[in-house]
Design goal:
210 residues; alpha+beta; Potassium Channel Kv1.1, Chain A; 3-stranded antiparallel β-sheet; 6 helices; rod-shaped; SKP1/BTB/POZ_sf; BTB domain-containing protein
Length: 210
Amino acid sequence: MDFVTIQVDERKFSAQRHVFAESQFLSEVVAIDIFAEEPQNMRRHFYNVDADPVLFEHIVRYLRRGVLPIFYDESKGHDYAMYVALLEEARYFGIPRLITWLENNDFLKAVSHEYITKEIYKIDQLSTSMTGRRTADVNVTCIPTWTKNKIYVCPRGIPVHRGNRHACGRACNNAKGEAKDVYDEEMILRAVVVERRTVFDGEACVEGVE
């Protein structure tokens, strides 16, 4: 196999010569046999390239298999600074497909979120909603909130009738007479539980790869 080595700063990257064919710049670099005067079995295919070794690693990774890069962290989101830096390298090395992927922000298609929202009216149900095993791609957030709630008051003051108008019978209705129903206002603690699932579409990163 015809392997070549490219040195970028203090790092060395080795790959078969054909790996660099998609890059206009690199394909021309590795096509030059700088030791053509030596016997074939003694020639060294070693080249120096002026680039950022961290970014060049992603360039070589892409050129090897054609898998488009994603720089995404669940807590920070997409690393746009890395995308911009890699775009400039892709332009420098002349890699059209990678340039298009980065210029069009197509990497946004590879990661999406699905949301499930539940409103909890009884706080004792909250622990049930928040506990349990979930896969690492699921994030659960609880948003507590205080709301005002009208509570029906029994005309006779019977505690078990409080909050339940239909619990009052004839005796309660007679005690109320022609008066309107009476309600108290109470502050009720409720919560909204948001479950966010991160969905990764691997097909978006290999679209067009044969």
